[in-house]
Every structure is written in structure tokens, then in C-alpha cells.
Fold these 3 entries.
Entry 1:
Amino acid sequence: MDLALTWQRFTELADVPAHIAFLIVLGVAVRFALSRLIDRVVGTTAGLPKPKNFLGSQKAAALLSSPGGLYHERRVQRAHALGSLFKSISTAVIFGVTFLMVLEQLGYNLAPIIASAGVVGVAIGFGAQNLVKDFISGVFMLLEDQYGVGDVIDMGQATGTVEGIGLRVTRLRDGDGVLWHVRNGEIVRVGNKSQGWSSLVLDVSVAYDEDVAQVEELINDTARALSDEDEWRDRILEAPHVVGIEEVNGAALTLRMIGKTRPNEHFGVQRELRLRLKALFDAKGIRVPAPIWPGQPGQAAGV
């Protein structure tokens, strides 16, 4: 009788390593399969096409949605960042559960361990509320694609160009060169000035008695020619054009141009347009209002 009981206990003990090995192999297999599934979902998400009319322009859609385009790059970056996050979470959960099951096979009572872990978790939760808040805010920021590296954003506390994004902290550099570290949990609102595209707004003033129709045609021709050049074609998403007279006073008419460019490219396009319009006005004899200083009667011509 004692021999039979001893043999039974020996058999049970011999089965423990086999069970532990099986649990470890199962955990690794589940983790591998889940990682492959996440990679496949990430690849599918990164390759999803953007709607062709999201800017009302086929040219803009082609530039931004094509492989290597801005929307495609942002979509790929966000998908890989989220995929990496989900892999880390799934790995921690799978191996944590596997570890507990191995302890159970070794004869440990899991109830006190789980209870202690719960108490520690509650204590950490109370002590690290801000950290948890920052982490959750960072996750939602990535999911919603609120901003990306290179975007110009206004966070209220600071305004500048995003240089780095983490789950806890966002780094941005303002116009004075100051690098700001802003906790994600403290961000109440975000104004993204360059997500997808930047708006070009340029006011052009000419003398009050100039032919508005002629000036408008010349400005539009210049803008179209600029947008067709190889150097500028990929920067301009929607060719700038005159939308009308923005302001009228006794000395000048102000025409407003609007257009769309790639993010943060509107500054360079505006400067180039000003340069070309200056040369055009000089060549065509189109006058612009000039300041009249005390003791200097009349109005000077030129740009």
C-alpha cells in the first residue's frame, strides 16, 4: 500500500516538469501567434487608402495618399507605434498568466499572491495617478492621430514644432528655440496648425486706380506658373488664387490669395510669390501704395 502511494506521488512529481514545459511552450506559442496577428493588422491598417476627395483636389489626394506621401507616412508611423504598444501589453499579460500557472503547478497557493498583488496595484494606482493619466492620454493621442513629429501645434502651455512623442511626455520646440516637455495628461486642448496641409493666405495691395481684373489675372497666372514648376509642384497642393478684394481704402485695393501647401511649406511659397509679383509689377508698371511722409507730397511708384 505504501509502495503504491509512493509510486503515485513520484508519478505526480514527474508530471510537474512536463506540465511546466507545456505551459511555457504554450505561452510562447500564443505570444508568437498574437504578435503575427498584430503585425498583419498593422500592415493592413498602414496600407489602407485615404479617400480621394478629402481635400477636394485630386492632386492633393495623390500627393498625400501615395506611398511616401504625408498621410501614408503618418499612417505607417502610427500603426507601427500602436502595434508595438499592443505587443508589449500582450506579452506582459501572456507571460504573467503563464508565470502564475507555473507557480500553481509547483504547489503554491495563488490566492494570497493575487490578493497581495491587488493591494499593491491599488497602492500604486493611488500613488501614480498622474503617471496613469499621462499614459492613457498618450495612448488616445496615438489612436486619434492628434499630432505627429514635425507638426506645428498650440498646446496652450506652449506653441512650437513637435520633436518627439512618448506615451507620457510630448516634446516641442518653440520659435525661441526652447524645448518644452509637456506631460500628456496635462494637455487639455491641441491646435494642430499643419496636420495634413497648411493654408496659404497672402494679401497683395495695389494702387486704388489700378485695373482690378487685369491685376487679378496677372496674379493668378503667376501663381499657376509657380505651382507647375518642378521645384514647387510637390510643395503646392492647391494653386494659390485670388478670391476677391479684402480691403479698400483711399490709397489702395488689397486682393487676397488663398491656397494649400504641404505642412509648413506655405512660408516658402508666400516668399517666392512676393518676389515674383514684385518683378511682375515692376515689368507691367503696376503701382502699389507707398507711404507719404510729412513734407514729401505726392505718392511714389514701385513695390
Entry 2:
Amino acid sequence: MTTRVRLVLVTGFVAVIATAVVVVISGRVVVRGLLARESEVRLDPLGLGTLGAAPSIAGVIVLAGDSRMVALTMPEEIEGVPVRRVAVGGTTTAQTRLLVERLLNSGTPRLVVIQSGINDLKSSGYGLEASALIEGASSELLGLAASVRDAGGSILVTSILPPGRPGGARRLIWDGDLADHVDRTNDLLEAGLHPIEWHEWTEPLTFADALHLDEETNDRLSSRLIDVIRARVTD
């Protein structure tokens, strides 16, 4: 065996070992992140810690949901109606529903706007059954819509935005069919809501990472949502 062949073999072996180490370390980071998030949910299931004192939502436009709603740039009021954001990053549809239903005790909102669902559906990458996640997410959001109606308020559910492409360690826990799960959930939501209660995003999307949109896209979605809300509160 020549020195060159030995060098190639050794270099290849080192590369394999290095790759394995990176995968193991990345996996540990992912697991630690998931466990940390689980602890946060157990300690503060509704994310009230990020909102401070539970705000009153009487007579206001409520923006609820996950980090995708948090990322939108919205004014303090639209057509003279105050805007109150109660969205919490990382939350599921069940958490969003429980939070808004709790806040309904403070009074009837003018309009509740929802962007939630991706955190339910991404769990298919953790080995959970996709059909159950789809049914669960749609059921929670339709149930929330019913609660808002029963309280005398109006609801606007926006379609769940699709995922981007996973990178790094996230590829280890990613379901390649996630975009399809999003489409199926959106179909159930659209079928279960009145047309005026449903907004389908049609804007072009670019992503900062697998789950979050870039700044330009968020600005575009923000502008569109403001127009949709304005039409609802002046109708």
C-alpha cells in the first residue's frame, strides 16, 4: 500500500469520524432544545410569562398565534380600533385556543385574528401520527372560532403558512411531507369556516429558515393583513 493510498484512507476515515461527531453533537443540541421547550411549556403552558399581566381584549383587534404572528409588523390601531398582540412564539393551536378563551373572560373583542398550526404539524417529524396532528390542529382552531363567535366577537383565521427547507440539525427531525400536512389542515379549516372568517395567503414567500419567513416577506404579509383587517372592521 503506497503512502498516498494510506493518506487517502486515513483522510477519509477522519472525515467519517468528524461527520459522526457533528451529527452526535447536533443531535444533542436538538434534544436539549426540545427538552428545554418541554420544560417551558410545563411551567407556563399558555405563554403568559411573555405577555405580562393577562391583558383585556374588550373591543380590540386581537392578534393571536405563534412566532409567525409575532414576526408581523402591525400598527397600534387600525381604523381607530386598538390592536393587541397576544401571540407567543412556539405555541400550538391548543395553547392559542386556551389563551384566547381565557382572555375572552375580560370582554368581547372586535376581531380575533389567528395564525397558528405549524408547531402542531411539525411534530410529525418527531414520530407523531400526521393524521392525528392534522385533525387536532383543525379541531382546535375551529373550536376557537366557535368560542369567539359565542362570546359575540368576530374571527379571522389565516391559512397556516407552509414550511421552508430544513437545515443543519433540524433535518434529523424533519418530515418531508410537512407541506402536504399544512395543505390538508388548511382545507379542513376553509371548509369549516364562513368565507368571511378565512384568509388564504397568496403572497410569494421566502424563508429565513425552516419555520420562519424573512423580513421582506413578513413586511409583505403585514401590509396585506392590515388591509384585510381594515376591510373587516369597516364592513
Entry 3:
Amino acid sequence: MNSITYHSNSIEDTLRLGRSIGERLRGGEVLELISDLGGGKTTFTRGLADGFGSTDPVSSPSFTISYVYSRSDGKKMYHFDFYRLEDAGIVGNELSEVENDESVVTVVEWGDIVHDILPRDRIVVRIKNIDDSRRELIFKFANRYSRLFT
């Protein structure tokens, strides 16, 4: 596994980093976002979706469990949030279906309960709060995802 660390000094920096990586997403990637509540997972995802080419509004799926963001060529980004679930249930089935779809980017928040479903070579993004506005984003990824971080 490879690892790279970025530092964000603002919400705008986090959006910009997400956008930069999102521009390189092709479909088939699975990203697991790990942080505390309010850590910047949705902000980072907003940047990812924008860079990926979706004009859909991005918000936290904590209450709805999942959102789908589309772009004009039919590719999609699925955004799952398992925070409020004790069991993955039917949403885990949906995750299993889309994470192997080469036309879909999959973003998972609070993925502990679906850990066994997630692919081993997913991109893990750990976001650490330094203070109210600064974050450290640590990415762990397989060689095949190196193109996202150049």
C-alpha cells in the first residue's frame, strides 16, 4: 500500500483537493472516508463530485443513507453513510452491487459495518482535525490508484 499526506488549511483547500482527485476518477474506484463527526468527509466528497463532473448538490447522507450524483455521460458517484445503521442490511447489498461497477465511483462514510464488503484495494482517506479549520488528509491506496495523486 502507498500512502500520501496532504494538509488543508481551510474548507476551500479541502474542496480543491477533492476536486483535483475527482477530475482523475474514471469509475470503478471505491473510497472509504474515515474521520470524526464534522471532520470534513462531506466537504471532501463535495469536491470529489464536482471534479468528477456532477452538478448535483452534495450533502451528508446521514439520514438518507445514500445519495447518487450523476454526470452527463451517465457515470455516477454513489455516496453511502452507515453512521446511523447497526446492520448494513439492504444498503449493504446495494453497496455490493455498485462497488464493482466500472461506471460508478463509490464513496463510503462510517464503513465499519460494511468492512467485510469493501474491496481490499479501496482508497482509504483518513481525515484528522488539527483545529477548527485545518485538516490532515492521509490517503492509503494500491499502486493502480497512483494516478490520482500526481
